[in-house]
Design a protein that fits this description.
The chain is mostly helical. It has a domain of 246 residues: 3-Layer(aba) Sandwich (Rossmann fold), CATH 3.40.50. The protein has a five-stranded parallel β-sheet with strand order 2-3-1-4-5, with helices on both faces. It is globular.
Amino acid sequence: MNRTQEFLDQARQLIDQKQPAEALLVLKKIIRKHPAHYAAHVLRGEALIASQSIAKAYEELIKAAQIDRRQADAWDLLLPLMVKDEKFSDMLAIEQQFDEALKTALSLDGLIALGYAFERTGDFDEAIAYYQRALQHSPEHPRATLSYANALRYAGRKEEAVTQYQAVMLGDSDYVPVAAWSLANLKQFKFAPADIERVEKYVAEKPDNYYAHFALGQAYETQKEYQISFEHYQKANQLRSASINFSPEKFSAYCDELINNFPMLQVQGKTSEPKLIFIVGMPRSGSTLTEQILSSHSQVVRMGELPYINRILWDLQNRKQTIYPRCVSLINDADVSSYRQYYLDACKNHYEGKPAFIIDKNPNNFENVGMIKRLFPDALIIDTRREYAANAFALYKQLFIRGQDYSYSFEHIHAYYSGYLKLIAHWQQCFNDTLMTINYESLVQDFETTVRSLLQFCGLEEEQGCFEFYKNKQAVDTASSEQVRQPIYKDGLAYWRNFETFLPDSAVKI
């Protein structure tokens, strides 16, 4: 065995023994002598990941991939890192350069990462294909199976998704409560007594798993065991909030800063083609339903919940070395032009052809309306509004995969909703002609009139598809994905009252 191979083996052993710093010292000896040694750079990337030096790991793995693009090891480590950075468009560009042999050689993590990239950019057929490859690589793997089930669900293939979730739930892994919660998140799924017993048994052994408690909350709710249901929701939220640090005071101050940095002014001008529609508001307020109605129009394409406005804000802070929104005063025309182009180019990964309108439905963009209108003066803003108590309870019983840190406490929900109302009132004064608030209750109780108002606001001709939105086969990747595939129903308007006796004042009064 030559000296280089001995160092590689030593580095591998040190990484496995959780000694990444020592492994980096060994690998440095190889790279100093052989700067283009592929395996050494890959191991160095892995050691940097283990030592939490993610930015450096990213650079190292890109260097390895540039040395030899035909091997999968660097991509297997790099692609999951790119998922964490939400570099989905970059991942799709890389994927197009792979030949079939390299795609086949990717590990489970690499295949799942690519599947997720396609999922987040709305190509569920490709996502499903990659998750199927992952399962061919590792049959019955619980994480791959859950990813596959999620993609099936969002693509509208509910029964197939249920089968996959149940397969994981019947296993012995720690993914059992995640699978149970995924079934509960279908909203209309009814757990069999044996399913509930299985999750209860899991909770008895591991009482601090909030996925399991959220699942049991929904399971007992469908059985109309409201007190038991609420007890599980309460436990789930207590567990989830333990690792979250939301400050009502800081959020209120942030809302005030937004108002102060975006004073009352009218913005005019045409800047984008296709025309942009931003659906904003509180989560669980009817935003997905509104998106489904509009995207059922022949001239409109949905893009889902996009991260690009937030990325612009992060970049702006870094470039100006001033926190947002204080950096708004430092924006110049070149910044505006650059960010407009970035946003429009990023959106092209989410649609084909030349639609007249595209929808960015990220509810939390209600905070960013001022910046959106700074970049796109003619953008239309649709604020979806739901009666507070119904919205608050819907948030409380929902486990969010990302963000919404305020939603695990009624006190925090109250504070966040109050800030939302204050901001929307300000934006309404600033951008009255291009901002519309649509009430969920009006949409349900006077559907046709409300839809006509919505279409008129957008400048769209009436089309029957908008009134039969539930026939729209486009993928929907939110918690409401099943609800928007059925006609309007009124039963849910006052549903929260089943739990009214258990709710504090902060959950019912704003």
